[in-house]
Amino acid sequence: MQDSNAAQTTSGTGLQGQSRRRLNALGMDREAWAALLEELGEKPYRVEQILKWLHHRFVDDFADMTDISKKLRTELAERCEIREPEIVSEHLSTDGTRKWLIRAAGGSAVEMVFIPEPNRGTLCVSSQVGCALDCKFCATGKQGFNSNLTAAEIVGQVRIAVQTLADAYPERERVVTNVVLMGMGEPLLNFDAVTPAVDLMMDDLGYGISKRRVTISTAGVVPGIYRLAERTDASLAISLHAPNDALRDELVPINRKYPIAELLKACRSYAGNLGEKRTVTVEYTLLNGVNDQPEHAAQMVELLRDFPCKINLIPFNPFPGSGFERPTVTSVRAFQHRLASAGLSVTVRTTRGEDIDAACGQLVGSVADRTRRQARYRRLASAS
Ligand code: SF4
Q1: Dihedral angle at the C-alpha atoms of 169, 84, 356, 322, nearest 10 degrees?
Q2: Class of the CATH-defined domain 86-383
Q3: Does the pLDDT value for residue 19 go beyond 70?
Q4: Is the shortest distance between the CB of 219 and ligand 1 below 6 Å?
Q5: What is d(CA 82, CA 62) in angstroms, rounded to the nearest whole number?
Q6: What is the reported pTM?
Q7: C-alpha span between 7 and 149 (Å, rounded)
Q8: SS (H, E, C) 29-72
Q9: Is 24 helix (H, G, I), strand (E, B) or coil?
């Protein structure tokens, strides 16, 4: 059972007011349910029934699980709660992109974004409240860090989106076809909550999303990549953003601990587990005059020539006080062309949801910062 999924509560559960930990059922994967049901002396097939009630039929009360015995329903209610995160607000962009502000434990809030396209729908979910890594071009990094989300809070974002979007897209059989852990936070620094949440996203008894379409994105937590390989075969993306260590040390400070060569080595190892035709995605935010010059393109070619990957170029999405500028369309195309003509697989990500601050790198949520970074950046922004 995941500690990261437990909630402290004293609500009436037959314990006559004793304080005890109740697990949030929404974050429990097959393994966690199997362990609990065994402890309760129940048959393993109950796992299937319970998961379907939770993630296919979206019940919020064990009493509604009518195909299991009353005794078990009572026992489950004593041990677990079903608590979906609360939606604070929802915003709809003129291009159809949606952004939700979702309340996390402790009062802070994270953001989640849905990007509809003709043949797919991508949900970008958060894994932490804020982020400790402070990548220099990222609005989340400037919010500082508060806490990890629980598995239930991570998978709960998918649960909210699937229910909400079913009404918005009645013609689609499946609205959320892809999930990317590219919202707020560094997923591999919240490993124990992220992995069961990802299990549930991919499980047919959960959300049944293909492992090719569930992507964990990391800024480069190298030990986490090796650990992840032992735990899942979900897709992996890395936030590269610079073609050499000197520049990456500045833009993505975790590079000082795990430099590019170590990161790519870990990715090769991870990709080796994925099987043929699956590669790692390399994200590269183009910052005007900083990492988008011809020499940077040439270094990217050198770096990735023999590294099977798909490169995703992201023209920087500005936010107040960022200190960076978006490159021109011409320079983005030139950068792409230099990579493509060297034989690299490269696409440019279209900016979506900019009018509601939902574009890549713009998510801020509402973070009660524990690091004082938020205040520091605010002082710098007002001074400049
Ligand atoms: S880019 Fe990702 S890892 Fe870096 S600060 Fe932003 S949320 Fe954190």
Answers
A1: -140
A2: alpha beta
A3: no
A4: yes
A5: 8
A6: 0.92
A7: 12
A8: CHHHHHHHHHHCCCCCCHHHHHHHHHHCCCCCCHHHCCCCCHHH
A9: strand
> Phi, psi (5° rounding) for residue 173?
-70, -40
End-to-end CA, the chain? 49
Q: Which of 126, 194, 239, 373 for mutating ligand 1's site (highest number of atoms within 8 Å of CB)?
A: 239
pLDDT of 133 = 94
The Å distance, Cα 110 to ligand 1 centre, comes to 13
Domain with CATH 3.20.20.70 in the chain: 86-383
Q: What spacing in Å lies between the alpha carbon of 243 and ligand 1's midpoint?
A: 18
CATH topology of domain 17-81: DNA polymerase; domain 1 (1.10.150)
Ligand 1 site-directed mutation target among 110, 111, 113, 135, most atoms within 8 Å of CB: 135
Q: Is residue 61 classed exposed, middle or buried when 0-12, 13-18 and 19+ CB atoms within 10 A define those classes?
A: exposed
Task: Say which residues have a Cβ less than 8 Å from residue 323's Cβ, sequence separation at least 6.
Answer: 136, 384
Give nearest CA residue, ligand 1 atom 5. Answer: 141
The pLDDT value given to residue 208:
97
Distance 84 CA to ligand 1 centre (A): 25
Which atom, in ligand 1's list, is nearest to the CA of 138?
A: 6
In the predicted model, is pLDDT for residue 346 greater than 80? yes
Helices 191-202 and 30-39: crossing angle, nearest 10°? 100
CATH 1.10.150.530 in the chain, residue ranges = 17-81
User: What is the Å distance from ligand 1's center to 379 Cα?
Assistant: 21
Regarding the beta carbon of 111 and ligand 1, being less than 6 Å apart is answered: no
Mean pLDDT of 238-247: 98
- Ligand 1 atom nearest the C-alpha of 184 is 7
Question: Is the pLDDT at 14 greater than 50, yes or no?
Answer: no
94 HSE (CA, 13 A, CB side): 3
Using one digit for the tens of pLDDT, what is the confidence trace for 71-83? 999 999 999 999 9
357 lines ligand 1 (CB under 6 A): no
